[in-house]
Amino acid sequence: MRNHTTLAETAAALRSGDVSARAIWDAAQERHEDCGDLLNAYLVWADEMAAESAKAANAAFAAGRDLGPLQGLPISFKDHYGIDGLPTYAGTSRRLPEKWEREGPVVQGAKRQLSVITGKTHSVEFAASGIGDNPHWGAPRNPWDAELPRGTGGSSSGAAVSLWEGSCRVAFGTDTRGSVRIPGAMSGVVGLKITAGRWSDDGIVPLDPEHDTPGPLTLSVQDSAYVFAALDPAHVRNPQGLLNNLEQSRLSDFRIGIADACFWGGCSPGVAEAAKAALSELEAAGAQLGDADSPESRDLEEVFMRGRLLMPDLFAFIETELPEWAEQLEPRLQKGAERMQRLLATDHIKRKLWVRSLAETADRCFANIDVIACPTVPRTPPVLVDGAPVFADDDPPEHICARNTCLVNFFGWCAITLPVGLDQLGMPVGLQLMAPGGHEETLLAVASAAERTFGDVRSRLGTPPLLG
Q1: d(Cα 388, Cα 139) in Å, to the nearest integer?
Q2: Within a domain: residue 334?
Q3: Which is more confident, 398 or 78?
């Protein structure tokens, strides 16, 4: 990617007239023309809409109108967000009814600030998998392996790739079990999971309404904080105030808990090692480290890895809103639907009550620490053959990709993943930082201080081999 400036630097250049929104959009269009077929990030490329938005942003700047921090910046949205004038498929084989093209507050907020929407990125069908494959539209290509096609992480599978393509500066995904953080980690970018309910999920095709959260993927923590400050209801009136506070954060101000052993087992070679080395760097830079014992996490992980925490809300949504879709679901979702039919309502209610009881006590992990750290995704992104993941007979279940991320959703926490190294196969490793629900400011403060130690994505990892 040619543009190595931060969002704040680009925004300042737009306001000083050193660069125009149209010039930024033209560069994004050029990058899409160069890499679009190679990476397959987008389902819908909105070139006409983006050109008009860039023109409007330029006119507003020329008239002295500053409508917000995102003005003139190119942004992609996952194919679960409703956007006027663009179809919504939610990763399925056919276009959803018009009601799912209506815009919710996140899209409306970006549009009010005259951001430039570049298009809609690929998603796993109904956001129900963590690998990134899709039998209907094909899988985006992970740019960190130049030889073999690998998964980019799901379900926001095209989001991170659109950043590496250089066609956008911010990519919005959704996170229900880790669908922002998993592609963030697998594709080597930053992904922010916001506390459920802090940002509205209206105008987004649901997977599990209790846990669905919109969230941004970016090429730095600094950019992630910039987007959060621009759209968060608590900071939208004074986004610079939050950013100024984050700039003052120091690692010595925080205590980082090392997550329970259940987060560290079963990792691919080089994953746990890279995450532990990153924590040692933070300790050497002044952070206080301690253990974060969590029996709630161990209990929940055991049940999750046995496949006992299913998603009946998705299949209820399909039956009530899109009944004609049931027969054309991909095979894994078909099997999931069959399992749902055998699930007793009483069993489902008991499991939800049990998870909620764990969540009520899980926050005690933070009694003496600010954030908890662990590898974001335990496994190397799998190779895709004919667009589908290939697993060895002795591999753990596919949902191990969401093992370390899903607990954040079930416990009502917020979290961020930032890239810290490469595993033994040269694929990105993410470090996940977790904080109690509603503590995004603390989370971003720790992550910002950590990034000043690690360096941003490009300085830490380099350039993806496929794009070198």
Answers
A1: 8
A2: no
A3: 78
